[in-house]
Amino acid sequence: MVRDGQIALAVGAVSKSYGATVALERVDLVLKPGEVHALLGENGAGKSTLVKVLSGVVRPDSGSMSLDGGAFQPRTILEARGAGVATAFQELSLLPNLTVAENLMLPRMPRGVAGLASASAARSAAAAILKRYELSRIDAGEIVSDLSLADRQRLEIVRAMEHATKVLVLDEPTAALAEVDWLFGLIRQATARGVAVLYISHRLAEVRALCSRATVLRNGRSIATVDLAGASDADIFEMMVGRAVRSEKADRPVRAAGAAASIAVDKLSGGQLKDVTFALRQGEVLAVAALEGQGQRDLFRMLAGLAKPAGGVIRVDGKPTTLRNPQAALKAGRGIAYVPEERKTEGILSSLTAAGNITLPVAGRIARGGLVWSGLEAEAAASVAASVDLAARYLAFPIADLSGGNQQKALLARTLLTGASTLLLFDPTRGVDVGTKQSIYAAIRRFADAGGSVLFYSSELPEVTDLADRCLVLYGGRIFAEFSGDELEEQRLVGALVGHAAAPKGAAHAAGLEKAS
């Protein structure tokens, strides 16, 4: 509950520069106890830098911060936590080679009778924490890298909530979560205790469900703090990008139902996937919608050559094909290229520049005497960067220094540079801003209009309804429903996602209609 007249956290005229690059310029922000306050802005607007300042990761060059009326100048994450400010980071800060218990307990591990760190005591304490947050199904002794991305996201959130006694910062907390009720319940419990929550998300529906006020950043500056009840989505988008943003719904040509299939799968099984049959046509954008754990990850990994099917047949351009690895997928038919779910660990090579990451598939073509020539690398990267709206000046930057949105553009550019005629995109706009989404949508549409095929999974239903020509809904590992044309709307999708709504007549795929048991 918001406590009127009180201030939990105040940020005044905070600035931060990295050499000639200004990340924050006189940013102001005020959070009230018990409030969920949104922080909005495009990738590169300064949100991540402000989060790092609040978390003690970086020190501001100027400006002031106060917490409960006292000076707040954290020099480390531990200092910020000690003061009651904790952050769940978008780029997860968990240590993947340690256990769940160790991640929750560090840096203060429970001690045994001899005064030494006790693994069993840590597991017991962590299990109690997981139970309190309704996550008892997660084994406290499991190595974090073995968890799904969604469970790693949940663990990141739980660790932050354990330390946030005054301010909780949630940076894109639902980016990997298909269902949000668990998180929203925890946020309401935190605000009931008087904790102020700074909520960073590109999903305005979530922002409106949770927040009453929002501060908008653009180019490192705080543009305005607005009451969300009085600001339309269009108003907010315009503040974020400095111009009106067109509707994501596009007038797309009708894809010919009789077009040849670029990929056809027959009774594909493996992992959580069960007897899935469908065809992806040339020139088509086909979406997959599903709640977490319905087999969508297994499907994409099989088609990308990263997982072996337990049964079924995959045909590429009409020929039965065994996709043993991503290289085999790229060479099959006219080529299949994949943009993975987790760009930080599965997509980018952080030691390389953006240009180096983009040109990886064609490194042999731009090498001379076994060495990659920087001029040829820059030329090859520039040839596709414009198609995804990636500014040429970013090509020479280390890719780790780019915003998440620009990293995602670089990954999409890399798939385009392969020359593959089929793209597999797993949640391609996860955690990116509205402007970057528009660039990615436009690149996908151009690719399909030129005859390419796109299969994509998205955790955002508006993205599915706006971008896809058809949508397959997975439930219980099977195709439960198929929608196209006027039937492709959010209300129908929501029902099918939970297995409660029958597919409309004539819209369900012949091989995937039986309801999952």
Automatic annotation (TrEMBL):
Q: Which SMART domains does this chain map to?
A: AAA (SM00382)
| Record's keyword terms, sorted | ATP-binding, Nucleotide-binding, Repeat, Sugar transport, Transport
Q: Does the keyword Oxidoreductase apply?
A: no
Per its record, what are the GO molecular function terms? ATP binding; ATP hydrolysis activity
Ranges where the ABC transporter domain occurs: 9-244, 254-501
The protein's matches in InterPro entries, at most eight in alphabetical order, are given as:
AAA+_ATPase (IPR003593), ABC_carbohydrate_import_ATPase (IPR050107), ABC_transporter-like_ATP-bd (IPR003439), ABC_transporter-like_CS (IPR017871), P-loop_NTPase (IPR027417)
Tell me the protein family, please: Belongs to the ABC transporter superfamily.
Q: By what name is this protein known? A: Sugar ABC transporter ATP-binding protein
The protein's organism comes out as Kaistia nematophila
What lineage does the source organism belong to?
Bacteria, Pseudomonadati, Pseudomonadota, Alphaproteobacteria, Hyphomicrobiales
